[in-house]
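In response to reviewer comment 3 from the previous cycle, which asked for concrete evidence that the modeling workflow produces usable outputs, we include below a single protein chain processed end to end. The sequence was submitted unchanged, and the resulting structure tokens are shown without manual editing.
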Amino acid sequence: MIPKKQTLEQTRKSPRISLKVKWALTVGVGIFVTFVTFSMILYGAMRQILVNQERRTVTDTLNTVVQRLSPVSGDLTMAQVVPRLEGAMPSGQTSIPVPSESQNRIFSDSVIQKLAQADVSVSVFSPDRTNIFQSRDTPITLGKVHGVEVQEANIDDFHGLVGTAPIYSATSSDLIGYVQVTDKLTAFHATMHEITLLIMGLSFAAILISILIGYALATRFLKPIKLITNAIDVVNEEPQSTVRIPALKRNDELGDLVLEFNGMLDRIQRYIDQQGEFVQDVSHELRTPVAILEGHLQLLNRWGKDDPEVLAESLTASLQEVTRIKSLIQEMLDLTRADQVDIQFPNAVVDVHQTVQQVVGDFRMIHPEFTFTLDDDLEQKTFVRMYRNHLEQVMIILLDNAVKYSTDRKEIHVSMAENSVSGVAVAVQDFGEGIAEADRRRV
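The workflow returned the following structure tokens.
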């Protein structure tokens, strides 16, 4: 198993690519692929539509030529074909016409006139496949003819349509020849080339725009993560920092993340403050039990060991203080007494009367120079829902502070009485310098 530290080091050594860049590239590639896919579908559909139009033109031309030549009763000859396809051919011409610009005037009707285009050629063959008429040169030779057919052909420099059809005599129904129409699709190829260039240009523009849009969106969406990263850096450098992420005006997962992150920082800050306060309170919570133990041991050492009643009382008090010290040490380890008290001691109760009297008695013993006055208006046994150690800690902290800051008038009053609001009220009064205004808000 690879150690976690080693894995983190390997991860940090790998090339770093910003999440914004990854997001922008992902969005850009996604939009580009989608655009190219639809462009290819559109390109294929347009190509098929244009090819079908050219197929219909070639088919119409074949049918027109067959219609013009079918009245011939015998085998087709050049002398019979030329007059039927020629509109203004010079008299006396007996050879196959040579392609030239003057060929544009040999066709008289609208369909045949289309054949005057430079990329269209009409060839007529006799039944023995002898070429007897050819409007323009073409590299396509006559193949097998099974009926009216139009197919795509790619031979040498020719990339177009080839249509063939047999010619039957209208009078005898005999085969009198064949007709072949070739179309180089020059205009079609030019149009598709322009469409291809347009798609390529739009694709480049689409991927560029999509990357920019993706980067802008990533910057906007990842702004909270950047703020969180900055806040983490600040907290790492200064754990006591109060930096927080400003609340986002957005009701989504990132907004929830910011709220949860701020809440986590607040909890961490609260734990740090509690830890600091706990360290400050340790001097009160541990020094006092140790002083109580020392007082009882000194009492026993002087004369209490010969008095069974004093010996029993001192041993009982010492054991209680040892138990409380053990509890304090445990709480120091987990630092969770404030948050866990309701879970660890949900049903704990304490006798306020007995506990307060014991703590006051301990302070009378360890601070004989002070006068402790206890006004007790409670019944002998008054229970409240509270963990005993915590009540002792509160009383010890209050009395210890009272002793600490009562430098002139060494007099402390403690009172206990029933209260209609809280049930029991315990008050500690001293005549020292008092609590500073800044600290009162923390009480």
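The longest strand covers residues 158-168. We consider this sufficient to address the reviewer's concern, and the full set will be provided in the supplementary archive.
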